[in-house]
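Action item from last week, closing it out:
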Amino acid sequence: MNTTQQKQQEQRSEAIQRLGKMMGDFPIAMLTTSAQDHSLHSRPMVNVNQSFQGELWFFTHVHDPKVEEIRGNPQVNVAFAAPDDRRYVSVSGTAKSMQDAKRSELLWTEECETWFPKGPSDPELALIKVEVERAEYWDEKSNAMVAVKGFFKSLAGGKKSEQLEHDKLDWQGSEGPPSA
């Protein structure tokens, strides 16, 4: 690996670590799905994601309308916002719904009890897994806006504005996930 490639790998790893840290700080995310008539539906989801490896997880009920919407069109968006801190994240990817008792136990938090009072062993409980394909985040504290595209692909380009630094990361052609 030459010096340029090594620098690009370091920038990519840094951006992904920052993205993961930011997402873990938000207690609620907004999940947007598309209905059969192509209308968009957004709803709050408890953020149980404390680590980030390219996937986001959320709890739902097996028969919730969003599960059917995901089956019909698995492309979703997940948005996080902290307006008081001027920090925002927008993630798009492919979602699927599943039941996984072991993962439900691992991901369960006290915040989930408000929405799912029967706990992680509820037979009507399901998980939504979002495989991240693209992400953008804005963070005024670090003076950065970063676009992360094609989560496991290769680095390309960047531009700056007067107010926010704007870098674009594109993983096309890269082999495997970024190293931590």
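Closing note: The chain is about 20% helix and 40% strand.
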